[in-house]
Amino acid sequence: MKKTFRLFGLLMMAVILSLGMSACSDDDGVADPSTHDPELVGLWAEKGDPDNTILFESNGTFKNEFDDDGDIEWVKGKWSTSDGEITLRVTSSNFPNHIKEVQGYYKVVNGNMFYLSENSSFVNAEVYIRID
Fold first, then answer.
1. Structural domain harbouring 59
2. What is d(CA 67, CA 69) in angstroms, rounded to the nearest whole number?
3. Does a structural domain hold residue 88?
4. Domain assignment present for 67
């Protein structure tokens, strides 16, 4: 009888743990517009360097691909915006040293142009053109 109750108890614990640890994926659907500027959603190419592209998805993920002397590099991750700034959190890359990197930039979206800068004065800003 003790074995039956112990087995029943273990079974109930397994069911509770399996239900408690299930969760919905945060990569589905559309990201919160208060933290993800909807104007950025789409495919962008750097002006003067069309091999450098960045795709911002509406679910808060991004993929950046660029040509580095014939080698295609890529990084993927999550993006968010706040007060004219964008944060890119790298979750995967074909170069392991980029993973877990967090990059913060200043950004301005003006129609089909997107400006990305490491400083608020936008000196030497990268300019991207919407291609999708």
1. 38-130
2. 6
3. yes
4. yes
The predicted-structure confidence for 77-108, as pLDDT tens digits, reads as follows: 999 999 899 999 999 999 877 788 888 999 99
* Structural domain count, the chain: 1
Of the CA atoms within 13 Å of residue 111, those in its CB half-sphere come to: 1
> Which residues are registered as beta bridge partners of 109?
114
Collect all residues with Cβ–Cβ distance below 8 Å to 2 and sequence separation of at least 6: none
Q: Which residue has the tokens 């608020």?
A: 120
Maximum distance among all Cα pairs of the chain, rounded to whole angstroms: 77
Report helix, strand or coil for 98. Answer: helix
Which structure tokens are listed for 45?
């190419």
CATH number at residue 115: 2.40.128.280
Report the C-alpha gap between 59 and 117 in whole angstroms. Answer: 23
| pLDDT for the residue 76 | 95
The residue with tokens 């580095």 is: 68
